[in-house]
Amino acid sequence: MGYGEFISCGFDMNSLAMQVRYRLSGRGCAWVFRAALVVAVSACGAHGGTNEWANPLGGDLLESTNWNPVGVPFTNDVAIFRPLSQTNTFAVSTVSDLAMGSVVVDGASIELQLSGYTLAVDGGILVTNGGGAMLRSGLLSSSELGIVGASAGLAGGAAIDVAGYPGDGGLVMHDRGLLSVVDGGGSLTGRVLWAVMGADEVARIRVEGEGTLFRPHDPMGPMGHSGAFLEVGANPNPGMNPYYDALGTAVVELAGGAAIDGTVILYDRGVLRFVDGGGQVTGGLTMTGGTVHVEGGSLVELGYMDSSPGSDFWIDPNGRARFSGQVTGSADFRGGGAVEFLGGFSPGNSPAAVSFEGNVLLGSNNILTLELGGLVAGSEHDQLMVDGNLAFGGTMEVSLIDLFDPAAGDAFRLFQFGSSSNTFASISLPALDGGLAWDTTRLYSEGWLSVLAIPEPRPIIVAIGLLIGVWGLRRTRRS
Question: 10 Å Cβ neighbour count for 362?
Answer without folding.
Answer: 24
